[in-house]
Amino acid sequence: MLMPNILLTEKCVRSCPYCFAKQHMEDSEVTGITWDNLMYIVDFLELSGQKKVSLLGGEPTLHPRFVDFTLYLLERSFHVNIFTSGIMSESRLWQCRDFLSKYPHERLSFTCNLNHPSISAPAETSRVEAFLEIFGPVSVLSFNVYTVDFDMNFLVETIDRFNMRRHIRIGLAHPIPGEINRFIPAADLKKMAGRLSGFFDLLEKSEISPGFDCGMPMCLFSDADIGRLFKLNQGMVNFGCGPAIDIGPDMMVWACFPLSNVNKRSLYEFNNLQEIDSYYKELHASVRKVKGGVFDVCDDCQWRKKELCRGGCIAHIMNQVPDKINTGIIS
């Protein structure tokens, strides 16, 4: 089931080198979504049969009505997942503690995006730790890979220290077509996968499952590594790439963050979530007719034809052959 993302604000507290929308978020004001727009979105999702939603930003906790919005969604019987850096003011943290800490993870969960300490200021680290002291047991860690020499030991240490849920969401930093940001080029993805597989023993010993966000080509891993991944994740391994469906504060929708600057549409153009999903899936399919995946061999790959793998991130494909794609997805 598709789990759409609602952006409460486009302002962020960090300036991560891999961010898909770094400049956009830096230039944004801390205003964000209105009550009227939020209620429209909630009604829209409920009529679509969707009762799960993620709250994003920027940093969603920056929105002055963040707690009120979260409580409203919970009162409407939605499962709410909040993507956060964990960096917030002391007053906002106490407000979250007073009103949100009573909910079990089946109702309210957090995905805390953690950067390596080497790129985090001490003040940021202390705020993240204060957040995890309260919400660690209902939180999973998220880690975005944008270099091939990344480390995962600190992630395991954090999970143990704060009694967090034993799962790590692993995301790849993807290119933004037509823009400049930090990501791992296709030629280095195999090296990245080799680095990742080097942590499998640690993850298995620590009973932590690694889950892929999207855009991870299956062919990066050996058969033995794929077997380890299935074992670590109890058979649930995703090598997909499809519309995530992000809904902005201005009621515009787009397929995913790497494509947040292209082919936006108004939410009011659609009758339900399924129509949005179908719209972007058709656009993605037309791009993959030009180039099947990140690598040339993706065109004839049996795994891709059997839909076991999507061929990597579509933003990578569009970044590689922008002059050959005439589908209207780039504007």
Folded structure, characterized:
The protein is built from twelve helices and ten strands. It is of the alpha/beta class and 331 residues long. The protein has one domain: Alpha-Beta Barrel (TIM Barrel), CATH 3.20.20. A ten-stranded mixed beta sheet has the order 7-6-5-4-3-2-1-8-9-10, with helices on one face. Helix 3 (66-75) links the parallel strand 2 (52-56) and strand 3 (79-84). The longest helix has 18 residues, at 273-290. The chain starts with a strand and ends in an 11-residue tail after the last helix.
Short description:
This protein is 35% helix and 13% strand.
Q: In terms of topology, how is this protein built?
A:
Layout: E1 5-7, H1 22-27, H2 35-47, E2 52-56, H3 66-75, E3 79-84, H4 90-100, E4 108-113, H5 122-135, E5 139-145, H6 153-161, E6 167-172, H7 189-197, H8 200-205, E7 209-212, H9 223-232, E8 246-247, E9 252-254, E10 265-266, H10 273-290, H11 302-305, H12 314-320
Parallel strand pairs: 1-2, 1-8, 2-3, 3-4, 4-5, 5-6, 6-7
Antiparallel strand pairs: 8-9, 9-10
